[in-house]
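REQUEST FORM: STRUCTURE PREDICTION
Request ID: SP-0412
Submitted by: Lab K.M.
Chain count: 1
Length (residues): 410
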Amino acid sequence: MTFDATRAAGRERLADFVPRAGRAYAAERNVDRGPNDRANVSTLSPWVRHRLITEREVVEAVLERHSLDAAGKFVQEVYWRTYWKGWLELRPSVWARCTAAIAPALEALSAAELATYEDAIAGRTGIEGFDDWARELVEYGYLHNHARMWFASIWIFTLRLPWQLGADFFLRHLLDGDPASNTLSWRWVAGLQTVGKTYLATAQNIDFATEGRFRPTGLAAEAVAVSDDAPVPPPAAPPVVVAPPRGRVALLLHEDDLHAESLAAQLETAGAEVVAVASPAAGEERSPIGMRGPLVAEFTAHALADGRDRAATAFGAPASALDGIRASALIEWARAHGATAIVTPHAPVGPARARLDEASAELAAEGLPLTMLLREWDATAWPHATRGFFPFRERIPALLRTQRIGRDGR
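STATUS: Completed
RESULT:
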């Protein structure tokens, strides 16, 4: 199982999966057959996470081949990622608290706990399945969704390690890792996301869903909800669509959205002329304790280069690789090309967004306003991520109509 960090590879994987996205996916998706047999799932998430391919085009491709009734389970899985992003966008302090807790949690481990932590991330706890998934994650940058749940449950309730350290381990090594899906999924397993509702991994379930590959012993018999987190804040106002500025603009890409071509109409309608394209040469550090996985670093750097090159071709503008998202570098780049403003795809809560927010005030002071372009997909869906997923799920048919996708949206 390999992941080539290009849009072309993502489109090829999508075309291969579409015939299997209907009832066959719904029937088989929960089985984890290991890294050498992923035919029952899409494995599209690394490309979607970086928007090398967008959620919209994935759902469009599936609903061109299948009815919503047949492909409903897969479409829901795509919207799960959207829901998580919207939920965190409305409550950014949850991400900030998780990030701030990682280094202190590591420092607070006793000698015995630190040894358990080091064994857990190295895959040498002696727990069947769990150790295999730890090694699989580092080797491939990917885990089946159920393996992620089992791993998190064992980490929290059997090994009794801080959930934030487990979430950090995943985020550093998952090619599809993003702050929303990863953080909130770990919170859900721990009983924080839906207060008091935990997820308990059992030997019977693991045995069944891995078709007998693993049946671990010694797992926790109960999952008592974690209570070390602050109350969830009420949702803030969702972001709104802001028109791009007119005139000469510099287009800045980041690792959360690398399909600038699909923003061309939004820019053209506003009278914006893209005169330069840039992105960081490397992705942002995902963890306050560093140690980003080498596969993640390589994939992200190649994805940024692919997005940067495609955008340069699409807009007929020169491309630059920058040393990170820093105001001084952005100012120098934009002025070198005579740009009067900088535009960038909207960055959801996470490391790239933090860097953009840090640079924004300094850019404005230098007469180079930074405008984030919100996609219709996010603008229409995120405001409904105020409660749990199931009320959100009920809105999917209406969202498809609003977004003009599929047979119900035409």
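NOTES: Residues 105 and 250 are 41 Å apart (CA to CA).
Reviewed by: T.R.
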